[in-house]
């Protein structure tokens, strides 16, 4: 149910939409990569043309052609900060791309322990495919997340299967309620008490310290 209101007349309207969700023809993509695009807002990547351009850049990076966009999320919804009102500053957007093909060696090297260590030192991770997104998309490679399907326990590749744990997309928990009465009273009563003492002192000096009194 979508609710809307007119800011000028405050009139409201509602409409109920029925959305049918069907599985993808080939099933859910088991290999997914999530990129943080720093020079875009979420509205700029919602049109199909922009997503196709991003998929073309991802295809050159992934070395596969069966890519599709799984999710597009604003960085503000993932704990990002609102940018300063300066021209050219963007909110940032997370774009999740899926495929049925394994990751390319470049993507795997970008999330390797050596690359993570370089990110902690403020350096770029080890990868040789940065230029596939330039100049349209500025990817923050230290925020790259790869999710691959789990391997069965008896698989010989089992130790190498959990490449990177998926990032939790749950919203932050609500802040606990705070007691604001005591700080409010202190903030209000202390200046009033000081003002009352100063008023009494001034009144005493002006009324009781006059000549002849």
Structural description of this entry:
This protein has 213 residues and is α+β, with helices and mostly antiparallel strands. It has a domain at 27-147: 2-Layer Sandwich (Alpha-Beta Plaits). Helices cover 27% and strands 15% of the residues. The chain contains four helices and six strands, in the order E-E-E-H-E-E-H-H-E-H. The chain has helices at 48-62, 105-110, 113-120, 181-208; strands spanning 2-5, 12-15, 31-37, 68-74, 93-99, 145-147. The strands form two sheets. Strands 4-5-3-6 form a four-stranded antiparallel β-sheet, with helices on one face. Strands 1-2 form a two-stranded antiparallel sheet. Strand 1 (2-5) and strand 2 (12-15) form a beta hairpin. The longest helix is centred in the last third of the chain and has 28 residues, at 181-208. The model is unreliable at 155-160 and 162-169 (pLDDT under 50). Keywords: Membrane, Transmembrane, Transmembrane helix. One of its GO terms (cellular component) is sarcoglycan complex. Pfam families: Sarcoglycan_2_C. The chain crosses the membrane at residues 180-202. This is SGCA protein.
